[in-house]
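ok new one. same drill as before - structure tokens go in, u give me an amino acid for every spot. 298 of them this time. try not to just spam alanines like last time pls lmao
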């Protein structure tokens, strides 16, 4: 087993992408790489070969490897059963799935699950980002939001994720903008229009719900109140606003946003409409989370 002073090979292996970082014992990111080799592109039994192809020179240094994301799903390398909430570093470490027969130590982070009145919810990969954000922000409690195809809103207390909820916001936007009647009058290539986006966020706060307001977007175009170039931003604001309407904490509650610059910027703007301040983090949260988890193993 590598010593605590050895660099860590931190891997974020998702459905469509593979990212890795070589991290020093003190948490400094020494090098990063990214490849379009998500788990869906890996043939059965081929995960270690792909890992070697991408990071073989790093593995040759005898580093410990921690993998988060969909590599731990049933379609991934080795299934890592979900760790139930509430969960902190100790619980995640106890549920790591060590890959049998790997040429050097490889463990897959399990992801989190919870039950909300008989309705289960799950996350894979986001849990590492949340714990990393706690490390970077120096906080052990708060609200953490991870925008995306399936956005996550998580609550943390005393260093543990106590609960979370998922929202199909990105997927619903894609469906409405590409496969609904709105697609016929929407210019997906138009630049972002902040005013139209804020208009959509504000509209989502009105009575009627997303299904009603989505049709209202169509009506706005019919009456010349919204053109094709502004519709995409308005619709984005509408679906993100609907998410916030169902999930946002009370005004004055700080929120940490974790994700791409584009999405976290939009969510920060939407939260402003609700009178909520936010802080934004990116990929550094993943590396900080995997490094902190690695330290908890020693």
């Amino acid at each position: 087993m590598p010593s605590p002073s050895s660099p860590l090979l931190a891997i974020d292996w998702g459905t469509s992408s593979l990212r890795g970082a070589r991290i020093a014992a003190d948490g400094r990111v020494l090098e990063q790489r990214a490849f379009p080799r998500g788990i869906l592109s890996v043939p059965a039994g081929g995960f270690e070969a792909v890992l070697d192809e991408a990071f073989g020179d790093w593995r040759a240094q005898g580093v410990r490897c921690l993998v988060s994301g969909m590599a731990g799903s049933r379609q991934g390398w080795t299934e890592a059963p979900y760790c139930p909430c509430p969960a902190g570093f100790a619980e995640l470490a106890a549920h790591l799935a060590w890959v049998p027969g790997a040429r050097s130590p490889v463990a897959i982070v399990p992801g989190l699950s919870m039950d909300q009145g008989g309705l289960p919810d799950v996350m894979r990969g986001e849990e590492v980002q949340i714990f990393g954000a706690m490390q970077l922000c120096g906080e052990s409690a708060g609200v953490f939001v991870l925008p995306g195809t399936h956005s996550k809103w998580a609550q943390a207390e005393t260093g543990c994720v106590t609960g979370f909820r998922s929202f199909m916001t990105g997927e619903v936007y894609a469906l409405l903008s590409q496969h609904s009647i709105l697609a016929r009058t929407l210019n997906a290539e138009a630049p972002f229009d902040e005013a139209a986006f804020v208009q959509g966020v504000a509209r989502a706060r009105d009575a009627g719900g997303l299904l009603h307001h989505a049709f209202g977007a169509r009506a706005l175009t019919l009456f010349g109140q919204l053109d094709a170039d502004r519709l995409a931003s308005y619709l984005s604001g509408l679906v993100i606003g609907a998410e916030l309407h169902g999930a946002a904490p009370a005004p004055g509650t700080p929120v940490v946003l974790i994700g791409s610059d584009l999405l976290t910027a939009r969510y920060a703007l939407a939260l402003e409409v609700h009178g909520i301040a936010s802080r934004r983090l990116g990929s550094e949260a993943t590396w900080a989370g995997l490094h902190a988890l690695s330290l908890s193993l020693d």
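The chain has a mean pLDDT of 94. and btw The CA atoms of residues 35 and 177 lie 28 Å apart.
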